[in-house]
Amino acid sequence: MIKLFAFDIDGTLLDNKSLLTSASNEAIKKLQEAGIKVVLASGRVFPSIQFHQNLLGINGPIVATNGSLISLDGKEVYKSYHIDDDLLKALYEFCLKHELEFHFYDEENYYTNRLNLDRIKHLFINNDYGMNYQVGLIIKKDPVSYLIKNGKKDVKFQISGIDEKEISKEEILGLLKQEFEDKLYMTASGDSIIEIGNKDATKWFSIEEICEILGIYNSEVAAIGDAYNDIPMVMGAGLGFAMGNAKKELKDVADVVVADNESNGILEAVNYVLEANKNV
């Protein structure tokens, strides 16, 4: 029997305009009525996921920044898995050496060394929702030294704009793995970015930790997503779903593939779980 359902946000709960669909709202309401715990698990920062929890009218556990932050109540950070300062410095030097665009986060702020408006659109006020739910913006010549000097810790490092470079994503990943493969977790929620975190910080790692606290077995978990960073949780869950718009690599490891995020994929997955629970 499924007792907990973990949801990715972008490309899963949200449509292609990054808005919640009526199908998503209906699906979450059905899970609440059935007493199934809902966990939002995203590469997004903690305040952004809190905002979407409020839109959905739910509370409870959150997995943020690809697993590096865990909240049990949706209000406070319970645990974080950060990138060590020496590794952060090495990533920074790597990006400077290869002329790669980057930014990174602590629990409250977005850091970069140069302003690219296309990269920070998601930090602006969303007029459809009427508020700014994101983090502070810090632009410094050496943002890494600034973060360390102020006693903060990096929870997610991101290389962006890869599709605009002569060097390919595969080449960049190859170079990163040569230097960091056993030290950091590398994934992506899109084709033109690489997201980097603590070596233990996957969505599934943090979902497992939440389940242990709640007394829920892995076999009692369902998970759904659309991107590379969703692969660990879709593989680890007792019942794993891929959206119709998901990457092929995710579809290949999912138990069930449902409709896309512009259709009723979320509702299809939830109805599947509710029907399966009736037969237990």
From TrEMBL:
GO CC annotation terms, alphabetical: cytosol
Gene Ontology molecular function terms on file: magnesium ion binding; phosphatase activity
Entries under SUPFAM superfamilies matching the protein: HAD-like
InterPro entries, per the entry: Cof, HAD-like_sf, HAD-SF_hydro_IIB, HAD_sf
Protein name in the entry: Haloacid dehalogenase
Organism: Anaerococcus lactolyticus S7-1-13
